[in-house]
Amino acid sequence: MIQRTVSVLGSTGSVGCSTLDLMDQAEIAGTGAFQVEVLTGGGNVARLAEQVRRWRPKLAIIADPSRLADLRDALAGTGVETAAGDQAIVDAATRPVDLVMASIVGAAGLRSTWAAAGTGATLALANKESLVCCGPRLIERVKANGGGLIPVDSEHSAIFQVFPAEAPEQVSRLILTASGGPFRRTSLAEMGRMTPEQAVAHPNWSMGAKISVDSATMANKGLETIEAAYLFDMPADRVDVVVHPESVIHSMVEYVDGSTLAQMGPPDMKTPIACALAWPDRLSWPAPRLDLAALGRLTFEAPDEARFPALKLAREALKAGGAAPTVFNAANEVAALAFLDRRLGFLNIAAVIAETLERATNAGVDSGFDDACSSALAVDAQARRMAETIVAGLAIAA
Ligand SMILES: NC(=O)c1ccc[n+]([C@@H]2O[C@H](COP(=O)([O-])OP(=O)(O)OC[C@H]3O[C@@H](n4cnc5c(N)ncnc54)[C@H](OP(=O)(O)O)[C@@H]3O)[C@@H](O)[C@H]2O)c1
Q1: Contact 35, 6 (CB under 8 A)
Q2: pLDDT per residue over 229-285, tens digit each?
């Protein structure tokens, strides 16, 4: 029986809901027992209140302060403490628990993830943006405080499960798989006309809106390339990407002797989440199973960097180092949200990233802070302003 005290930051999102569903299924199956300390939402009071009534956490937080009164009304009589605002989430992330699920989307999750990394808890890291922005210093912070870091991204969970942590010198290469997203077969000309609805309609994975757009541009695979390089201490030229439309092999580790180990499973985020919740044990839950005979065959192809330039831009940012990965992340976030708001065309997402990276390099964007989180936040703010200006210019030109 897996027993854990857990805080779920971003519990109302796709990963957050899957985490709670999985915990529920494990409790029903009698294989898990979870006590919830903190649940947080951004603005979705109805969903947060429903989760609070099921899990009875000690504290429920809504990031948007204007929704606190609604949350209090919805939870009247439950006795559950409530709070609102970013700082409340950061403070709550330091409460002692066995495991913190960091599943807020984007740079908004940076400060709470950093705070959780300083507690000695196991950090289940879905919020890849915080690792991209804080870099290896996030990992160092977890280790220095006696905690563990378990990646939740399916690709990194796959690598984590087949990576020889005690003998990393045995590894020659990491191979990240990519579904190719909804526009894998779409021509450049057609891509220019794609709408937010088409971009978020992922063929294999059910995810939040921002990561779905990232998947359509392959900026997501770019962020994951940076994430993998940091997590497994690999140089950029030893992290490869292969398009695998069936999303059955979740990633691979190639060893120096030519052997390659892969982790496989149906494309369901609950499997890597289960891995993070139970590691080093395994959580038994009614998981979907692979039926390889029914699948018949698995296919692979090289990524097309001409149609998906965000992937190349991320790799260049990783190689450039310094502030570049944070700039990449900020520009991508601004551009993806502008696309979702219909203020920017799909193909201009990569154009905004490229232009922001160039302007930030020329302006010498950097920060003088000692701690990686403050530095990342300072760079993020500068890069966002640049990206917003570029988005506005492109919207006027269109
Ligand atoms: N979804 C996946 O399958 C998947 C797979 C791998 C990695 N990830 C990563 O996991 C993270 C979460 O992704 P997701 O797909 O679950 O996103 P999502 O469905 O959009 O959920 C995001 C969560 O963050 C909250 N949030 C949004 N803005 C916030 C803010 N300013 N302050 C505090 N909380 C805020 C949302 O609250 P409200 O909804 O209440 O506003 C929600 O709880 C991302 O970093 C993503 O890259 C996701």
Answers
A1: yes
A2: 999 999 999 999 999 999 999 999 999 999 999 999 999 999 999 999 999 999 999
Paired tokens of 370: 């000692």
CA distances from 370 to 132, 212, 250, 367 (A): 17, 34, 36, 9
- SS3 string, 195-264, reads CHHHHCCCCCCCCCHHHHHHHHHCHHHHHHHHHHHHHCCCCHHHEEEEECCCCCEEEEEEECCCCEEEEE
Identify the burial level of 366 via C-beta atoms within 10 angstroms of its C-beta, where 0-12 means exposed, 13-18 middle and 19 or more buried: middle
Residues with CB under 6 A from ligand 1: 10, 12-16, 41-44, 63, 103-105, 108, 126-129, 153, 205, 207-211, 269
Sign of CA dihedral 73, 75, 80, 85: negative
CA-12 nearest atom, ligand 1 = 43
> Any bridge partners for residue 241, and if so which?
176
Give the model confidence (pLDDT) of 123-168 as tens digits: 999 999 999 999 999 999 999 999 999 999 999 999 999 999 999 9
Spell out where the chain has E strands. 2-9, 32-41, 59-62, 81-84, 99-102, 122-125, 148-151, 171-178, 239-243, 249-255, 260-264
- Centre of ligand 1 from the C-alpha of residue 15, in Å: 7
Q: Please, what is the angle between helix 348-363 and helix 372-397, to 10°?
A: 130
Token digits of residue 192: 């220019």
pTM listed for this prediction: 0.95
Ligand 1 atom index nearest CA of 13: 21
Cα-to-centroid distance, 173 and ligand 1 (Å) = 30
Give nearest CA residue, ligand 1 atom 17. Answer: 208
Q: Using the atom order of ligand 1, give the atom closest to the CA of residue 211.
A: 47
Model confidence band, residue 361 (pLDDT cutoffs 50, 70, 90): confident
Indicate if the alpha-carbon torsion angle 207, 60, 142, 366 is positive or negative.
positive
Helix (H, G, I), strand (E, B) or coil at 79: coil
